[in-house]
Every structure is written in structure tokens, then in C-alpha cells.
Amino acid sequence: MTLPERLTKLRKLAGLSQEEVAEKLEVTRQTVSKWETGQSSPDLDKVLPLCGLYNVTPDELLHDGGTEGAEKEIAENNFARSEEQDERIMAKKKLTGILGGVLLYFVAIAFIMIAIPVMQISPVVASAIFILLFAAATLIIIYSSIIYKKKSHKKIADTKEKKLYKTIDSVLAFSTLAVYLLVSFMTMAWHITWIIWIIYAVLSQAAKLIIMLTTGKDVDDDEE
């Protein structure tokens, strides 16, 4: 492989245009084009900057030996960067979906609290609307958690963020069960006290969101 061919291939593997290379090396695009078409060769003071830009050694840049390994490494680095960018986008979409679901939980709870006494809506209709809102919120959270879940080829030990969330969730679940049974037996209003579990679901999701926002890590994902 000739030097112009290597320069062209390394630039493309690095995901750069001739204009971007020219800007980084402080030369004109026509100069980069001449290097890659064989009309001229890079000056000595541009060899090291080119090596740094393409992540290769001078020997790999100027000679054919070792270029294949360098090309593979550059391609792997570009793929890793692309995967990281995709993961950030997926995490952002997932967080948005979960936030939307939690917000809809609060809307459902606020609605059921004012629907009958304030808005004077029939209890049957109010309950139906509440169940629909609650179901929609749950579906949004489940969908966001599944569709935007990070792909992992192997499962390893839980991260400290996941362990923290599991601990908080366990405490919330036990406390909710105790409050639910206590209130239900004291009031015998079993047809109403089930709402306590909705509060638990909201608090559990809120705890997950707080951990995600403060640590920047998704407690649902397995690290590779």
C-alpha cells in the first residue's frame, strides 16, 4: 500500500474529512488532497501531527509494516466511541420515559383525590379514569426500561448503585406492606387502601431517578 493510499485509508478510519484534517494540521484542504493523490508528500513537521491525529507511529504511517494492526485499532476505537454515544442517547431517552411515567402517576393520584369531592365525577367513572392513567404510566415506564435497556453480553456482580437501589426498594416495600396492613385492618377499607401500593411504586421510581441523576449511572444496566 502506497503512502497516499495509507493516508486516505487512515483518514477515513478516523472518521475525518479532508477539511477537518486540514484544519487540525493548519494546512489547506488542497494540501491534504495532494498528499492523498500522490502529488506531494507531507513535510517532516507534519508527520508527527499526522501520527497523533490517526493514532499511529511514524513507521506505521510512512511504511506498510504494522499498518493493518493500526487500522484495526483505529476502527475499534471509532466503534467504541460510537457505542458510547449511542448509550448516552439511549440513557437520556430512558430517563425521559421514566420521568414521564412518574409524572403521570402523580397526575393519577391528584385526579382521584379531587375527582369525586371537588369535580363531582361519578365514583365509577373516576375510578376507571384513574386506572387508565395508572396503567398508562406503568406501561410507559416498562416500555422505556425495556426498549432503552443497555445491551450486555455477560452478567456480572451488581454495581454499588444497583445495590443501593435494591436496599432502598426493599425498605420501601417492607414499610409499605406494614402500613397497608395496619391501615387496612384499622379502617377495614380494603377497597381504598390499595392506593398505598401506588404510592410505593411512585416512591420506588423516584428513588431510582434520584440515584440515576446523582450518579449518572442506570441502576437497571449491567456493566461489561
Your description of this structure?
There is one protein chain. Helix 2 (18-25) crosses helix 3 and helix 8 (160-187) runs antiparallel to helix 10. The protein is built from ten helices and no strands. Residues 151-157 have low confidence and may be disordered. It is elongated. Among the domains are: 3-65, Orthogonal Bundle (434 Repressor (Amino-terminal Domain)), CATH 1.10.260.40; 155-224. The protein is an all-alpha fold. The two termini are 37 Å apart.
How would the blueprint of this fold be written?
Elements: H1 3-13, H2 18-25, H3 29-37, H4 44-54, H5 58-62, H6 67-115, H7 123-147, H8 160-187, H9 190-193, H10 195-215
Number of helices: 10
Spans with pLDDT under 50 lasting ≥5 residues? 151-157
Q: What percentage of residues falls in helices of 4 or more residues? A: over 70%
Question: Would you count the extended β strands for me?
Answer: 0
Main sheet summary: none
Radius of gyration: 29 Å
What's the pLDDT, averaged over the residues?
A: 79
End-to-end separation: 37 Å
State the order of secondary-structure elements, H for helix, E for strand.
HHHHHHHHHH
Descriptors:
434 Repressor (Amino-terminal Domain); single chain; 10 helices; 224 residues; mainly alpha
In short:
The chain is mainly alpha-helical and 224 residues long.
